[in-house]
């Protein structure tokens, strides 16, 4: 079966690996997370040394991210991980998340005392149900940490973000716990989120994509505003990463404008085809719909503008990122100060 792009379609799970392979984002966020968790431990947050840390990984993907976030953390009792994702490829029976958690557990990559994986909609207000297990059927307000890593882009609307943030802060975290979120931000023009905002938000042919139209622009700003309205304490740290591309000839950039040439390109230049997947990951639109868009937000204009920016940056595109931390609304002022102080120490050490 041919790739979705060669059929004129867009499937997130087919292009995401190309993005992951081409960016230092995952390495940087993992290292930042190790520093932050160490700073939290030093501040007396979460690490009791008496029991495994209970982790909720919301929007887990293939669960390699949470494994990387935790494997640099030296915590003797280990971790109990509950993972949730919408896609069956990741969280369904025989999915990648369970396979990766099992492999990490058995190899000793990470001390996992227990894990579970459930497929479901994290934006539906049912996280306690999705995170429950037979051994722990009522997990309300029992988690030490939650991760929401690069998943708010998949919200359909502002109301979805309000729902999941309230669910985490009011129902998932215990009274002295922290929710940790990582997302691409939009602070300056012609960075990753700029191109996603300008060219990706026009996607409307849902028949050809498994990723709905993106209505959430600058997720960190939307998260911060949602926290303010829902009385959820929220702190942040800004950082940056890069998405790298191979050296591409002008004729290759021109080929990117014509989906009819993608099959030949995939055969003759696999590296360029991986770069093409990275470009589609940014906008999350189907080639058929994107190429038919003759407006200033169509495929041709996108390739012209982004190729100029990547060339100017010697083959890379800047990702402006934000780490945000939320606390339960009932958390004491002293606890919130500890979390904020740990984040500031992380800023100094990173």
Please describe the structure with a list of short key phrases separated by commas or semicolons.
7 strands, globular, 350 residues, Rossmann fold, single chain, seven-stranded mixed β-sheet
Determine the fraction of residues in helical runs and give it as a percent range. Answer: 40-55%
Largest sheet: spatial strand order: 3-2-1-4-5-7-6
- Tell me the Rg in angstroms: 20 Å
CATH class of the domain at 26-184 and 215-240 and 321-349: Alpha Beta
Total helical elements? 15
Order of helices and strands: HHEHEHHEHEHEHHEHHHHHEH
Do you know the CATH architecture of the domain at 26-184 and 215-240 and 321-349? Answer: 3-Layer(aba) Sandwich
Descriptive notes:
This protein has 350 residues and is α/β, with parallel strands linked by helices. The chain has a domain at 26-184 and 215-240 and 321-349: 3-Layer(aba) Sandwich (Rossmann fold). Helices cover 45% and strands 18% of the residues. It has 15 helices and 7 strands. Strands 3-2-1-4-5-7-6 form a 7-stranded mixed β-sheet. Helix 7 (158-172) links the parallel strand 4 and strand 5 (173-184). The termini are far apart.
Secondary-structure topology with pairs:
Blueprint: H1 12-22, H2 25-42, E1 53-58, H3 64-71, E2 79-85, H4 88-91, H5 96-107, E3 112-119, H6 127-130, E4 143-149, H7 158-172, E5 173-184, H8 192-200, H9 219-229, E6 234-244, H10 250-255, H11 262-268, H12 270-283, H13 287-292, H14 299-312, E7 316-326, H15 333-349
Parallel strand pairs: 1-2, 1-4, 2-3, 4-5
Antiparallel strand pairs: 5-7, 6-7
Helix pairs in contact: 1-12, 2-3, 2-15, 7-9, 11-12
